[in-house]
Design a protein that fits this description.
The structure holds two protein chains of two kinds. By secondary structure, chain A is of the alpha+beta class. Chain A contains three helices and six strands, in the order H-H-E-E-H-E-E-E-E. Chain B is α+β, with helices and mostly antiparallel strands. In chain B, a hairpin with a 5-residue loop joins strand 13 (245-248) and strand 14. Chain B is globular. The chains are: A alpha+beta, B alpha+beta. The structure holds FE2/S2 (inorganic) cluster and fe (ii) ion (FE2). Fe (ii) ion is lined by residues 208, 214, 218-219, 361, 365 of chain B.
């Protein structure tokens, strides 16, 4: 656990909440503007304690593949998100796990309710832990990595085409 | 058991529900149809279980289902593979609730009955209380288990005839072409399985996975987001221009055959020889220059081995029926052996893009299947709600004993359903009344 000054802590929390809200509201362009050029977006199978690529993950996006993901969402013909799911997540237990130079590692828990309106109309529940790597840049905080460890990732999952 | 099957056979006339150019939508949603399928297809027939490379060490096991029957595929002490019920022979507790593991033996958590890796009952606490011979109380086992090039299949009833008959020339060739992608001649499924849960009937997956007609529409978002995917050159061209083909083999096996349309070697891997030089050299070393060249140009098959094994190019997928309206589509990257591991890294990345609940392709297929399932919910035989399967029926032809047609034709769907009709109406298969 790391200690940072109060203004920094407030910036970090505000960033994590903003990132969550933009994802909830499927505001893909604004969400993408939060990431760095070396962004890594990872949803592992089981605990994220393995080297990505050595076994199969749900999502293992480098910046280029994340760009493809967002472009696909923005086409308007991605049936899996046409229309986009209605979503709200509650983010809590925010902790600053490390602070080194301009980089911070942030842990948080989330519960996400998704109304899967595309076909079934089911209310789906997603829960897990997010680990953000944030970097201070001249434009403010940016996200260099996001890892999402779902509590039920070792069981079959329904469609996960949105940003989690 | 026999009585149940006969009475439901009387209720469902599969020859009427599956016609040459259409099928009835209730086949997707009717619980009685599902029950018949679990018997006639998943009990009386051969079902894919897993690959021997998943359980390399003695005591390794993976959890699977034969239809709705939970089983474990286990590496025995003598190196052979067994398939045993994942259900204690005492009062039926699930023995291993996890996806996989390694055990010296299986001990039931309820009263402590202990089984050897092959399902033999080793011991029970308080044996004096049992007046019958507990040696007879091992775990249930399918009547037949066999493998072809490491692909393990089981037939619960034990009455389906040999695996080689089930695979036939078509299924054998498809598994050969898949296995030959590995310079060692044996693929390795060691990168783990991802399961995608879909609220649709299982039969929509053999269909969707082998539908060459939907790509322009279902996957339009990928064509726009990545204009140069290799699907482009094989399918997104005009109806007449595509060199790809659909094929239906005897036994319900299907293929979308892209080989004739690849315009470069390794197009199926989205790369060039320089990037995977070790792999190409290993193929040449193992198979000789000529066969290696064929492998590098043709790539792996995109095919179904009836009913549940999807040879998904450089992935292996299992189609697992849970209930009439729920299916799990499991996949794992097909890794190769006898070469540098870097090509396997590439295969894992490719797999993550193509398959699974967060992939660029199967997410759209899943929503389409769920919409289709909803449209037939509550359908009963005799209602409206036929599914048209006539596309290309006039232009398909027989070549080398297989039915071929244009890539966008429903030859694959018809091949699946016509075999399904034979099995469900007991025209083929092992059921005692089938040869009457
Ligand atoms: S149920 Fe397994 S020992 Fe009794
Ligand atoms: Fe598809």
């Amino acid at each position: 656990m790391a200690t940072v000054d109060e203004p920094t802590r407030r910036d970090i929390e505000a960033f994590v909440y903003l990132e969550a809200r933009l994802a909830d509201e499927s505001r893909y362009d604004e969400w993408e503007a939060l990431v760095t050029d070396d962004m890594h977006y990872w949803v592992p199978f089981g605990p994220g304690d393995y080297e990505p690529g050595t076994r199969v993950s749900y999502i293992n996006d480098n910046r280029a593949r994340l760009g493809t993901r967002i472009r696909q969402l923005a086409t308007g013909v991605h049936h899996a998100q046409d229309p986009p799911s209605s979503m709200r997540r509650v983010v809590s237990n925010i902790e600053i796990l490390s602070a080194e130079g301009d980089e911070f590692e942030i842990g948080s828990n989330f519960v996400l309710y998704e109304h899967a309106v595309q076909a079934t109309g089911h209310l789906r529940l997603w829960a897990g832990r997010a680990t953000h790597r944030l970097r201070r840049t001249p434009d403010g905080l940016r996200m260099a990595a996001k890892k999402v460890e779902l509590v039920n990732s070792t069981s079959p999952l329904p469609n996960l085409p949105f940003i989690i | 058991m026999a009585l149940t099957v006969q009475s439901s056979a009387a209720e469902h006339d599969y020859r009427h529900l599956v016609q040459d150019d259409r099928i009835h939508g209730s086949l997707y949603t009717d619980p009685a149809v599902f029950a018949d399928e679990m018997q006639r297809i998943f009990t009386d027939g051969w079902v894919f279980v897993g690959h021997q490379s998943e359980i390399p060490e003695i005591g390794d096991w993976v959890s699977r289902r034969l239809g709705t029957e939970p089983v474990l595929m286990v590496r025995n002490r003598d190196g052979a593979i067994s398939v045993v019920a994942n259900r204690c022979a005492h009062r039926g507790t699930t023995l291993c609730p996890q996806n996989d593991g390694n055990n010296r033996n299986f001990r039931c958590a309820y009263h402590g009955w202990t089984y050897d890796l092959d399902g033999t009952l080793l011991g029970v606490p308080g044996p004096k209380g049992f007046h019958k011979d507990t040696a007879d109380l091992g775990l249930d086992r399918p009547g037949q288990v066999d493998d072809y090039r490491g692909f393990v299949f089981a037939n619960r009833s034990g009455t389906a005839g040999p695996l080689s008959d089930h695979l036939g020339a078509g299924g054998t060739d498809l598994i050969d072409r898949t296995s030959d992608m590995s310079p060692s001649g044996s693929v390795r499924l060691s990168a783990g399985w991802i399961g995608q849960r879909i609220d649709s009937n299982w039969k929509m997956w053999p269909e969707s996975d082998h539908d060459g007609y939907h790509l322009n529409f279902t996957h339009a978002s990928m064509a726009r987001a990545v204009p140069d995917t290799y699907y482009d050159e094989i399918v997104m061209t005009g109806e007449e221009a595509s060199e790809s083909a659909t094929r239906a083999y005897d036994g319900g096996h299907l293929e979308l055959d892209f080989r004739r349309s690849y315009t470069a070697e390794l197009a199926w891997l989205g790369t060039t020889r320089e990037k995977v030089a070790d792999y190409c050299e290993a193929l040449e070393g193992s198979y000789g220059a000529e066969k290696a060249k064929t492998i590098m140009w043709d790539g792996p098959p995109h095919a179904l081995v009836f009913p549940n094994l999807f040879l998904a190019e450089m992935n292996i997928a299992r189609i697992e029926p849970i209930s009439p309206g729920v299916t799990v589509h499991h996949h794992t990257p097909l890794l190769v052996e006898g070469t540098d591991e870097s090509v396997n890294r590439r295969l894992v990345l490719q797999s993550e893009a193509a398959m699974g609940p967060a992939s660029f392709f199967l997410t759209d297929d899943a929503v389409i299947a769920e919409r289709m399932h909803r449209a037939f919910e509550g359908a009963a035989a005799g209602d409206d709600g036929w599914v048209d399967l006539s596309r290309g029926i006039e232009r398909e032809h027989i070549e080398d004993g297989q039915r071929w047609s244009d890539i966008t034709d429903e030859t694959t769907n018809r091949g699946f359903w016509h075999h399904y009709r034979d099995v469900m109406a007991c025209v083929v298969g092992s059921r005692p009344n089938s040869h009457a």
